[in-house]
Amino acid sequence: MRPRRPRARAARIVHTVAAARAACETWRERGERIAFVPTMGAIHEGHSSLVRRARSGSDRVVASVFVNPIQFGPREDYRRYPRPRARDRALLSAAGADLVWEPREDDLYPAGERTRVRVTGLDSVLEGASRPGHFEGVATVVLKMLLVVRPQVLWLGQKDAQQARLIERMVADLLLPVVVRRAATVREPDGLARSSRNAYLGREERRQAVALARGLESARALLERGVRSSAPLARAIRSAWRGFPRVREDYVAVVDARTLEPVRRVRGRVLVAVAARLGRTRLIDNFEWEPR
């Protein structure tokens, strides 16, 4: 494997589809390997770790920053979603991005645009059941971006496991020439999964948000001890949450990691996933586990 080219300069910032496409086409003509990291901004260590992983295995890294309006429901946080543009640029550049693409909404969704992408079955459970239409928005924007950047590798985070699985399925079904890679969830010292929405939490809400990770730890411990029924796993999570009265359950699920269908017994790889609200903030977390 040839040595990777170091990135010594600050990332280039582009806004239009044409500029992003032209930059990537130039790199492809040189035979350079491109990795892509899509984000909605409000960059934290989870995003930065994805860029670093992408940097270690590719010649060029493109990161996008776009708060995608069509994946937000009418009562969700699109307008208040954090948009610290200068900070995001600096962090992505420091992590190793060569190009930061900040698409304009009317460039990705021009007047008259109608096409949407659905990954049926995977888009209507878990997050999809709680947020109808969310994954249609995710799949549509990711496909548009992949067609512009045309990377060899797409990097996603495990924290959004359902999103990653859905995009993996879309890429396979549409025969897209890109390898989808996942990086592990990055956590705070107390176990809370890093998320842009953590910034919404008040002091007491932040203290109680660790319940999501604590509940998952309880379920993982049962699996490691040989428990294979899903019901005790869900009970362990809910039991852990009882010590955190501000946590309001959205769902607790044990599903097949590939199909996202519920399982009663753990016989293969599973995804243990949770979602909960603290005040106005909705958080998710998960882990995947496979019997040895």
Q: TL;DR of this structure?
A:
This protein is α/β, with parallel strands linked by helices and 292 residues long.
Distance between the termini: 32 Å
**Helicity level:** 25-40%
Which structural class is indicated by helix and strand composition? alpha/beta
CATH superfamily of the largest domain: HUPs
Tally of separate domains: 2
What's the pLDDT, averaged over the residues?
96
CATH top level label of the largest domain: Alpha Beta
* SSE string, helices as H and strands as E: EHEHEHEHHHEHEHHHEEE
Task: Report the portion of residues in β strands.
Answer: 15-25%
Q: Judging from the principal axes of the Cα atoms, what is the shape?
A: globular
Task: Tell me about this structure.
The protein has 292 residues and is an alpha/beta fold. It has two domains: 12-183, Rossmann fold, CATH 3.40.50.620; 200-289, Pantoate-beta-alanine ligase, C-terminal domain (Pantoate--beta-alanine Ligase, Chain: A,domain 2, 2-Layer Sandwich). It contains ten helices and nine strands. It has helices spanning 17-29, 45-57, 85-95, 105-108, 127-130, 134-149, 161-173, 203-209, 211-224, 230-241; strands spanning 12-14, 34-39, 60-65, 99-101, 153-157, 179-183, 248-256, 270-278, 281-289. The strands form two sheets. It has a six-stranded parallel sheet with strand order 1-4-3-2-5-6, with helices on both faces. The protein has a three-stranded antiparallel sheet with strand order 7-8-9. Strand 8 and strand 9 form a beta hairpin. The relative contact order is 0.13.
